[in-house]
Amino acid sequence: MSTAQIVAQLSAASQKLDEVEQKVRAAVEETNAAQGLVSSALEGGSGQLVAMFDRIREALGQVSSVSGVTKEQVQATIAKAQALGN
Q1: How far apart are the C-alpha atoms of 24 and 67, rounded to whole Å?
Q2: Phi-psi label, residue 13: left if phi above 0, alpha if psi -120 to 50, beta otherwise
Q3: Average pLDDT of every residue of the chain
Q4: What is the tens place of the pLDDT at every residue in 8-31?
Q5: What are φ and ψ of residue 83, in 5° steps?
Q6: How far is CA 21 from CA 4, 17, 26, 42, 49, in A?
Q7: What are the sequence ranges of the domains in the chain?
Q8: Cβ distance 14 to 75 under 8 Å?
Q9: Residue 3: in which H helix or E strand, if any?
Q10: What are the C-alpha distances in Å from 8 to residues 44, 68, 74?
């Protein structure tokens, strides 16, 4: 595989990681909306349900963190591939 092909594939992977981040943000917004509906229906919601929504947001935060670190590594690998290809 040529350097250009490697860079192209890694760049596509980086774009996919951007999409992951966008979807995580959307999932957090949807989680907040769902919690709002539960709170409204139960006039404040139960502590157990609120804790479950908190756990969802925590898991999404972890996904966001790992995808960010992964993107940094992909970007570093692109830079290395470009340096080696020149």
Answers
A1: 10
A2: alpha
A3: 94
A4: 999 999 999 999 999 999 999 999
A5: -65, -40
A6: 26, 6, 9, 31, 25
A7: 3-85
A8: yes
A9: helix 3-41
A10: 50, 19, 11
